[in-house]
Amino acid sequence: MKLKDKVAIITGAGRGIGREIALLFAKEGARVVVNAVHLENAQRVVDEIFSMNGEALTIQADVSVSSDVERMVKLMLDKFKRIDILVNNAGINIPKPSLI
Predict the structure, then answer these.
(1) Full-prediction pTM beyond 0.85?
(2) 3-class SS at 91?
(3) Nearest one of 92, 98, 93, 74 to 37, comparing CA atoms
(4) How many Å apart are CA 16 and CA 99, to the nearest integer?
(5) Tens-digit pLDDT profile for residues 41-89
(6) Alpha-carbon span 19 to 21, nearest angstrom
(7) Which class for 73: exposed (0-12), middle (13-18), buried (19 or more C-beta within 10 A)?
(8) Domains along the chain?
């Protein structure tokens, strides 16, 4: 377990790459904060982590809103007392044609 006893926060972890990072970190022993804009997506990931006996916390927050980020960090520190790893995965995809 390469990440045993580490505390990680992963933004945009409700689906896609962020979800996979959260699950892998949990498998490697990290306690994981799963952040997403959509609470339902984040909770599904946390439920998966719980099902493999991992420890996780769901925090709904929009990382483009500073008050959300401040609240997220406070909740994380209240629960886990520290942050060892930060994965800034959150982002948006705006599909547009490459040629106009």
Answers:
(1) yes
(2) coil
(3) 92
(4) 27
(5) 999 999 999 999 999 999 999 999 999 999 999 999 999 999 999 999 9
(6) 5
(7) middle
(8) 7-87 (3.40.50.720)
CA–CA distance, 41 with 46 (Å, rounded to integer): 9
The residue whose two tokens read 């904060």 is 33
CA distances 42 to 27, 34, 52, Å, are 17, 6, 16
Going by their DSSP bridges, the two strands 56-60 and 31-36 should be labelled as: parallel
CA-closest candidate to residue 31, choices 1, 56, 65:
56
Q: Are 38 and 14 in contact (CB under 8 A)?
A: yes
Q: Contact at 8 Å (CB) between 52 and 18?
A: no
Q: What is the C-alpha to C-alpha distance for residues 25 and 41, in angstroms, rounded to an integer?
A: 17
CA distance 30 to 8: 7
- Tell me what the mean pLDDT of segment 15-29 comes to: 97
